[in-house]
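The methods section describes the discrete structure representation at length, but only in general terms. Since the whole study asks how a given chain folds, the encoding of that fold should be made plain. An entry of this sort, consisting of the sequence and the corresponding backbone structure tokens, reads as follows:

. . .
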Amino acid sequence: RYQKIIEESPSPFINDKCRDRLSKSAVQISHACKYLGAGTVEFIVDKNQNHYFLEMNTRLQVEHPITEMVTQIDLVQEQICVAAGEKLSFTQNDIQPQGHAIECRIYAEDGFNNFAPSTGIIQEMTLPLGLGIRFDEGVRTGQEITPYYDPLLGKLISWGNNRQIAQRRMSRALNEFH
């Protein structure tokens, strides 16, 4: 359905100079519209590392766990606190990303039938565990998967000190996921 199924942070395509420009542009855009809260500023980056503003979403996006993993900031908690009238518990200068995170969306789809939604009852589910692994799920054993909603079952996230470790952990976790 033309949805992203894998996300990474930081992007392996973008160099540090471009990343710094993107961050500064996002902060400037947020300040210019006096936005306070959790949100996402999206850009398109070309092959020469030039960036172009795409959109701003004034909400958390489905990819937010990879940002949480590399920043160690609970964005959902921060969003709730801001909505309650509290200030953020950090400043932009406090954010010091560490390591690499990968998110894979887990869908109930039939790969042998043009990735059509796969319906039925979840009879059994084996979730991966381990260091650097997180699963944000919305399903349980015994639950019915119907054709009436998005077939996203959850998001599997891996974190490592570097991209290779995050990739190895994700590969292991995907193999253990049933």
Observations:
- The first helix runs from residue 16 to 32.
- The first strand starts at residue 6 and ends at 9.
- Strands lie at 6-9, 40-45, 51-57, 100-107, 109-110, 116-117, 120-121, 133-137, 144-145, 152-160.
- The mean pLDDT is 92.
